[in-house]
Design brief:
The complex is a heterodimer.
Chain A lengths: L1 E10 L2 E11 L4 E5 L6 H8 L7 E6 L2 E2 L4 H7 E4 L11 H11 L4 H14 L15 H13 L5 E5 L7 H16 L4 E6 L2 H7 L2 E6 L2 E7 H5 L5 E8 L4 H8 L4 E7 L2 E7 L4 H11 L4 E7 L3 H9 L6
Parallel strand pairs in A: 3-8, 3-9, 6-7, 7-8
Antiparallel strand pairs in A: 1-2, 1-4, 4-5, 9-10, 11-13, 11-14, 12-13
Helix pairs in contact in A: 3-4, 4-5, 5-6
Chain B lengths: L1 H13 L1 H26 L9 E7 L3 H14 L5 H11 L4 H10 L1 H4 L2 E5 L2 H9 L5 E5 L3 H11 L8 E3 L5 H27 L14 H5 L7 H30 L2 H7 L4 H31 L7 H31 L3 H18 L11 H7 L3 H15 L3 H24 L8
Parallel strand pairs in B: 1-2, 1-3
Antiparallel strand pairs in B: 3-4
Helix pairs in contact in B: 1-13, 2-11, 2-13, 3-4, 3-8, 11-13, 11-14, 11-15, 11-17, 13-14, 14-17, 14-18, 17-18
The chains are: A alpha/beta, B mainly alpha.
Chain lengths: ~300, ~425
């Protein structure tokens, strides 16, 4: 349906996005994850025709859209990271304005406004000014404005940043319903791994402007099939101890956070006995430890050497 | 496009702080300035000027005719009898006497008090601020002027006007004296052109007769402040609209508009139209308030009000054009705060050279000429003339200039309006 082929974008000679290739099939829900500055928003801006790529192609059903953006705009709904709304207007007035410039009018416009407000659960607050809404409600109006023209593809750029858990759940449920019930194709970016795990069939992982891994959850998790993740709680933290843990045969990564130590090691390593031995040497107590099933977060850590929120 | 206009007007209406600033500040200033200056100058309707003029007469009138006869026979090579006839004729048109007659005339004595003093004394008084100007009649002025009038040569001496500082009073005095000299020279020139030996030199009838010939209304301080503040604050509308455009970019609303496939120029046209309406309402509000509360335009006809509305409409149009340029710049720059600062400076500059802060006549001529090319300066001149003379012919050409300014700004706005992906 929609694909980008080796798309790159440079700003003043500095590459923000490099050779990104991704595709969205009809009705799919695809996640684009990466830390801040990974190039997700730039990639989305190029797909949604707001900026032109420096090189590469963006195709909709096989036709290049870069020089003819009108066609893709008709079927694309974009929920930007910022609240693209007029704060001094009510939710209804905002939707009416955006609907009218989509050339909708009369009863049709009215029905679409009410439908969009129902989807995001704000029909009863439609006459209130946006500036009086909570952060979560504003984000829901932001989504409603992108749904007015019933887009086939909905792109959401970190739609849950800085909002309360209740609004976050509401947004996630809304996106899921749009995908599963209405068949809307979703491209969802976030740096919350759990959101993407919950919503998306396939994932693209971006870092430093490049796609570093892609696939279904199972495919991505298989990257860590040959590894174990061990978490240990220590009585105290000792930097020399951590450095020595990293030298244990088969250990790929060791990261400490407060009194928690997370170790990724090759399956079959003699990790536990070595760990106990080292703790003894450094006069540390291991209060508890357990082996975890690898998560996508671990995959990201494995691929980039840092966590999503770094 | 109606959606864009409605949206912009609604946003402006909901921004009560901005609305109050734009509507109330000019009328507060009109009221404050009006009372402040009324207190200084008294009631501006009734008070006349009280100009103090020191006259230093270094010319000896008793010798003027003898000097003239000598010059005519020696330098112009006229015969004794011919020269005597001209001197006899000239004795009825002594320029010094004409000047004093002029200064003693009813019209002039109403506003000018003449002090005949010695030069040392006048300088002392002028430095003490007691005199607004000093007029020196140099020795031989009468003979030289008459000789020049008869022979067509340039006079060897001329009146000297001195002032300590340039003020409104000194400017007014200078204009009065200059008016007299022009009138006298004109009469002498008429006599020379007629070349009838028996023609008498016509006495000038005073410097104000021409003004009195045209029916006019006085132009009061209240009217000046109404017009000046109305025009100045309407300029700020253009900057306000551009500032709101900056907010639309910051909030990515502009991008959302682009994604609807609506032509981006509609966005610009929406800004132009809403700027026009806002500027128009703002200025009309100032005029209506001044009329209702300060009785700024008493007993004026419906024609006067229609003309005023017409001029306000044209000024609003040119401000809408300025709004287009500011909006296009806002869409291009990366630092919207810096752009807003520049817009503010441009408006202050327009306000200063357009005469919205001080009357233009206190500024140098070249600056006045530049000021008349600003929309507010041009409209100020138009309104000033319209209030005084109500002559349609006097506002037609300036109206064309305001329309031209609008069209020029629209073209610049369209050229600067960013293409896809160029908006900051």
């Amino acid at each position: 349906m929609l694909e980008t082929i080796n798309v790159s974008k440079s700003f003043k000679g500095k590459k923000a996005v490099q050779d990104v290739s991704l595709y969205l099939d009809n009705g799919e829900s695809v996640g684009l994850i990466g830390p801040n500055g990974a190039g997700k928003s730039t990639t989305i801006s190029m797909i949604s025709t707001l900026i032109k790529p420096t090189s590469g192609e963006i195709k909709l059903n096989g036709a290049n859209t870069i020089n003819k953006p009108e066609k893709i705009r008709k079927i694309l709904g974009v929920v930007p990271q910022e609240l693209a709304l007029y704060q001094e207007l009510s939710a209804y007035e905002n939707l009416k304005f955006f609907g009218s410039i989509y050339k909708m009018k009369g009863n049709d416009l009215e029905k679409r406004i009410q439908r969009a407000l129902e989807i995001v659960g704000l029909a009863d607050r439609q006459k209130d000014l946006v500036k009086t809404f909570s952060g979560g409600m504003k984000r829901r109006v932001n989504i409603a404005a992108a749904l007015l023209h019933r887009p086939q593809i909905l792109i959401l750029d970190e739609p849950t940043v800085g909002i309360d858990p209740q609004s976050r759940n509401h947004i996630l449920e809304t996106v899921r319903a749009l995908n599963e019930k209405d068949g809307t194709t979703i491209l969802y970016t976030s740096h919350y791994m759990e959101e993407v795990e919950q919503l998306c069939d396939r994932l693209y992982i971006m870092d430093y402007g490049e796609v570093i891994a892609a696939g279904t959850k199972a495919e991505l998790l298989s990257i860590l099939q040959a590894e174990d993740t061990v978490k240990a709680e220590l009585s105290k933290m000792d930097e020399a101890f951590i450095q020595q843990v990293k030298t244990i045969d088969g250990v790929r990564k060791a990261e400490a956070s407060h009194l928690q130590l997370k170790i990724i090691a090759k399956k079959g390593s003699n990790l536990i006995s070595e760990l106990v031995h080292l703790a003894d040497q450094h006069q540390l107590q291991i209060i508890n430890f357990h082996t975890e099933t690898p998560s996508l977060e671990d995959v990201f850590l494995h691929l980039t050497g840092r966590t999503l929120r770094d | 496009m109606r959606s864009f206009i409605k949206k912009d007007l609604l946003i402006f209406w909901r921004d009560r702080k901005e609305l109050m600033t734009v509507l109330l500040l000019p009328i507060v200033l009109v009221v404050v300035l009006n009372f402040a200056f009324s207190g200084l100058l008294g009631n501006d309707e009734e008070s006349g000027m009280d100009l103090q003029l020191a006259v230093v007469n270094q010319d000896d009138e008793t010798e003027a005719m003898a000097d003239l006869q000598e010059k005519l026979t020696r330098e112009a090579s006229l015969g004794e009898s011919e020269a005597a006839a001209l001197v006899e004729q000239a004795s009825h048109a002594d320029p010094v006497q004409m000047l004093f007659d002029f200064l003693d005339s009813e019209d002039v004595t109403e506003i000018v008090t003449v002090h005949q003093l010695e030069e040392d004394e006048t300088i002392e008084k002028a430095q003490a601020g007691e005199m607004d100007g000093i007029l020196v009649i140099p020795n031989g002025f009468a003979a030289d002027s008459l000789y020049a009038a008869f022979t067509g040569e340039s006079p060897a001496t001329s009146l000297v006007f001195k002032m300590e500082n340039e003020t409104m009073n000194t400017s007014a005095l200078f204009q009065i004296i200059n008016g007299f000299m022009e009138q006298m020279n004109f009469q002498f020139a008429l006599q020379a052109a007629g070349s009838e030996p028996d023609a008498e030199v016509m006495l000038p009838e005073g410097g104000f007769e021409e003004v009195e010939a045209v029916e006019s209304h006085s132009f009061s301080l209240t009217q000046y402040f109404t017009v000046a503040m109305g025009a100045l604050f309407s300029l700020f509308i253009a900057a306000t609209v551009a500032t709101k455009t900056g907010e639309e970019i910051r909030q990515q609303v502009f991008n959302r508009i682009l994604l609807t496939n609506s032509h981006s120029v509609l966005f610009l046209i929406g800004k132009v139209v809403s700027t026009f309406f806002l500027a128009w309402f703002q200025m009309m509000f100032v005029f209506m308030f001044s009329q209702a509360v300060l009785d700024a335009f008493p007993d004026r006809s419906i024609t006067f009000w229609l003309g005023t509305i017409g001029i306000v409409t044209l000024l609003s149009l040119s401000i809408a054009g300025l709004g287009a340029v500011f909006t296009a710049i806002s869409l291009r720059v990366t630092n919207i705060d810096a752009a807003n600062g520049i817009f503010f400076l441009v408006i202050i500059l327009f306000g200063v050279i357009g005469g919205n802060f001080v009357p233009v006549y206190v500024m140098p001529d070249w600056l006045q000429q530049i000021g008349e090319w600003t929309p507010n300066g041009r409209a100020l001149v138009m309104l000033t003339e319209w209030i005084q003379f109500e002559e349609l012919s006097s506002i037609i050409m300036p109206s064309m200039l305001l329309i031209g300014f609008f069209l020029l700004c629209i073209v610049i706005g369209l050229i600067l309006f960013p293409k896809r992906g160029k908006a900051s």
